[in-house]
């Protein structure tokens, strides 16, 4: 790049959140120039990156989809390619694609208080370095590293004669037909891979250190199917979305109020889907309460069907070491394998791994508090799209996108150049903003801000409260607005998005 380009807003990431953010910006803050910087070569984010067998959503598409674009396909629990197509279609329908700059990975962002601008440093595949400036930076790059997952180092791994695969980097032409497969892990990825691979593999074993709560739901939504026949698409979608959001909030609240009752109900339902006499206590009964960690969704009970047919099984044990023929367990048993899949989790990463500084001084996200779950204490003109962990990601990212558009329109109308979340006296950090006991959360604590002891600094897992705060709430609470002094203002640079 030979020239520096300036935009009112730069969105980082062209995945589900980034495309949604662009649509909200166009409709809610018209007249703001913007660009989307995407480090990869295509739209889709997570849904373009992950290509492992059976990849699918673990949330229904009536809540994972955008509020403004109905999901009209038959499957409520959609596969990865269908979700990517939905994102691409949204970008095309709202004329967003022309704003995307592919192949630009943002490596650093520095805020200049005198000019009220972020300067972004970008890296391209050919090794060239570029720079962009913007007045407002909107991060939609997700919360985990695209370049590396979490994978423990196991003793003897080099001795294994077969292949060790990470789902995040699935080989395009991996042939596992007729092979013995061991999948290490018990989260959504492992639960998805087992039935998908069991269809053609000789046998698939899911090796878990400890059990995860699982719940089965139909892959389609019968009520949605009926409503679509009689109502306009958007109205039918809105009704089903409301139904699913309401049920999700009710269920989550029940896990907080009556954990033992919910636990018994989940395990009782699960037992009916497994072979008679299956060891529920060992393989399907976690030591924690429901929603202390994320529940795993099993559409149409496909995992349990694979277990019933004998094509798959679950082993709960720990790894002693890898050997040439498979994995030696602490119990002494050998799990024979031709292929081992390390579905061992994500590596959390703040702001896509971007280094952040304010007037040349480095800032760490871990040292900040989260403002309304989407900005950071002391960091001006910077928002982040961060969805729910206990519900569909897009429910909150949609609210955040609407809030950002509202904030930008307010700043322009009032002549403000800077908006800085600033805690009032008495506001103190209490916990991580992502309040779960999952291993990947605890490992990645340094990538997360803190949640405060009261609103608007308290990160909630409640869509109703967040809707009141982000969609209907005021813009002034603990937000310091300021205008840029005329003497220090710089003329706009060329190359706006429109």
Give your account of this protein's structure.
The chain is an alpha/beta fold. The chain folds into two domains: 5-147 and 347-488, FAD/NAD(P)-binding domain; 157-342, no CATH class. It is built from 13 helices and 25 strands. It has helices at 16-28, 46-49, 61-64, 80-93, 188-198, 222-230, 233-257, 259-271, 280-283, 302-308, 393-414, 439-443, 463-470, and strands spanning 5-12, 34-38, 100-102, 105-112, 117-123, 129-139, 163-165, 180-184, 203-208, 214-217, 296-299, 312-316, 319-323, 326-329, 334-336, 339-342, 355-358, 361-363, 370-371, 375-376, 382-384, 418-421, 429-432, 450-452, 479-482. Strands 1, 2, 3, 4, 5, 6, 17, 18 and 21 form a nine-stranded mixed sheet that branches. α5 links the parallel β8 (180-184) and β9 (203-208). α1 runs parallel beside α11 and α6 (222-230) runs antiparallel to α7 (233-257). The two termini are 19 Å apart. The relative contact order is 0.16. Mean pLDDT is 90; it is low at 486-498.
Q: Would you kindly provide a brief summary of this structure?
A:
The chain has 498 residues and is α/β, with parallel strands linked by helices. 28% of the residues lie in helices and 23% in strands. The longest helix is centred in the middle third of the chain and has 25 residues, at 233-257.
């Amino acid at each position: 790049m030979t020239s520096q380009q300036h935009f009112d807003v730069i969105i980082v990431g062209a995945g589900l959140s980034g495309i949604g953010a662009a649509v909200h910006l166009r409709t809610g803050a018209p007249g703001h120039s913007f660009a989307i910087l995407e480090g990869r070569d295509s739209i889709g984010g997570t849904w373009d990156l992950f290509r492992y067998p059976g990849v699918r959503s673990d949330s229904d598409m009536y809540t994972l989809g955008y509020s403004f674009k109905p999901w009209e396909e038959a499957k409520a629990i959609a596969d990865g390619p269908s979700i990517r197509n939905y994102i691409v279609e949204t970008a095309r329908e709202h004329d967003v694609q022309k704003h995307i700059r592919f192949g630009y990975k943002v490596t650093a962002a520095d805020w200049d208080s005198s000019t009220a601008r972020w300067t972004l440093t970008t890296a391209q595949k050919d090794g060239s370095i570029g720079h962009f400036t913007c007045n407002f930076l909107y991060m939609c790059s997700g919360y985990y590293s695209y370049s590396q997952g979490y994978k423990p180092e196991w003793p003897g791994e080099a001795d294994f004669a077969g292949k060790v695969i990470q789902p995040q980097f699935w080989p395009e032409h991996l042939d596992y037909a007729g092979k013995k497969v061991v999948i290490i892990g018990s989260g959504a990825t492992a639960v998805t891979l087992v039935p998908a691979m069991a269809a053609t593999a000789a046998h698939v074993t899911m090796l878990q250190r400890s059990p995860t709560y699982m719940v089965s739901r139909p892959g389609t939504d019968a009520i949605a199917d009926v409503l679509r026949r009689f109502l306009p698409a958007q109205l039918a979608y809105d009704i089903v979305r409301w139904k699913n959001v309401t049920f999700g909030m009710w269920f989550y609240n029940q896990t907080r109020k009556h954990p033992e009752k919910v636990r018994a109900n989940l395990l009782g339902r699960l037992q009916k889907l497994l072979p008679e006499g299956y060891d529920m206590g060992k393989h399907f009964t976690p030591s924690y309460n429901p929603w202390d960690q994320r529940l795993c969704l099993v559409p149409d009970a496909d995992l349990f069907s694979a277990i019933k047919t004998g094509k798959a099984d679950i082993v709960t044990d720990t790894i002693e070491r890898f050997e040439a023929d498979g994995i030696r367990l602490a119990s002494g048993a050998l799990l024979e394998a031709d292929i081992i899949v390390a579905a061992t989790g994500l590596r959390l990463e703040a702001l896509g791994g971007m280094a952040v500084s304010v007037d040349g001084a480095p800032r760490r996200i871990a040292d900040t508090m989260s403002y309304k779950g989407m900005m950071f204490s002391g960091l001006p003109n910077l928002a982040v799209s961060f969805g729910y962990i206990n519900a569909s990601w897009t429910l909150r990212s949609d609210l955040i996108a609407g809030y950002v558009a509202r904030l930008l329109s307010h700043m322009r109308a009032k002549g403000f150049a800077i908006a800085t979340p600033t805690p009032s006296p008495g506001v103190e950090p209490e916990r991580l903003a992502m309040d779960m006991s999952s291993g990947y959360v605890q490992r990645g604590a340094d990538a997360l801000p803190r949640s405060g002891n009261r609103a608007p600094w308290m990160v909630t897992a409640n869509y109703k409260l967040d809707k009141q705060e982000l969609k209907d709430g005021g813009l002034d609470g603990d937000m310091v607005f300021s205008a840029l002094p005329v003497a220090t203002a710089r003329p706009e640079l060329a190359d706006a998005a429109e």
